[in-house]
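ENTRY TYPE: paired fold submission
RECORD: A
CONTENT: sequence, then structure tokens
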Amino acid sequence: MKSRWYVIYTKSRNEKKVEEKLNRLGIEAYCPVKTEIRVWSDRKKKVFVPLLPSMVLVRLLDSERNSVFEVPGVVRYMFWNGEPVVVREDEVAVLKEVEQSKDMTLESVEVLKPGAHVEMSEFGFDAQYGEVRHVSGSQCWVVLKKLGFVVKLQLQ
């Protein structure tokens, strides 16, 4: 039987710890992160923030799914229509590419209002179009219904 990528929920702010502990147990885990500059009154610091808050991807056989609960901080699996969510290998590859890319940004935005459709194939997603759900300042949430994802885009 082939291993598949599943999504697990973690306790808030435990994503990296859970990923590290799962990997130490021999379970392939992946928590995509982005780099942000946080500013305090006395300093600036580069921090790594999870792309998928409170979520970690794990790759394992279906029969091994319960082994993740040996790690403190794991809450439950993500389910869709009564089945655990399975993430395709190419979707994980896109997340890894986005994480490593320094220059993956939108080139231009004309009108971005809730309900508008955005071409997503250029970002590596199979879904041809995503629907803009919410726009706030320089951020935009796009729903990819066919994939079951909400993607947060940073507008520049």
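RECORD: B
CONTENT: sequence, then structure tokens
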Amino acid sequence: MTKEVMVSIRGLQFDQEMDSEEIETIQWGQYYKKNDTHYIIYDELMEGCDEPTRNIIKFKEHEMNLTKRGTVNVYMVFEENKKNMTSYLTPYGSILIGLDTSRVTFTEEEKEISVNVDYALEVNYEYLADCRIEMHIRPKDGEGINLLS
């Protein structure tokens, strides 16, 4: 069953001097679960762009995948205790990024699912920062929808 949800995503990035930068976005999207895998789909309008970028987030125990299609295109795989490389395609060119994931966890409650991912980010084989993604998925109306059903 697909459900209308509010998706809150907060990204934290810590550089070598332990300074942090935070980005947060709240989007409306669709949630469903199939064969113990959770799916979140939403469109994001990026600053300075006319067309939305489709985001598909898929997660299960110890793994999260993010696909972006539109102004930017990327398929990012976060697997606990593994490093994955991918090309991040932007209108300005391609960037090679590495995702060295140390932790992927999620908790399911009646009215909220929380996902946490910790990883080291590399750009063109150079360490850039330690990062964290914190995601919260809640029913759109906040009342009466059980995400677990």
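NOTES ON RECORD B: The mean pLDDT is 89. Strands lie at 3-14, 20-34, 37-44, 53-60, 63-69, 74-79, 82-90, 93-108, 113-123, 126-139.
STATUS: closed
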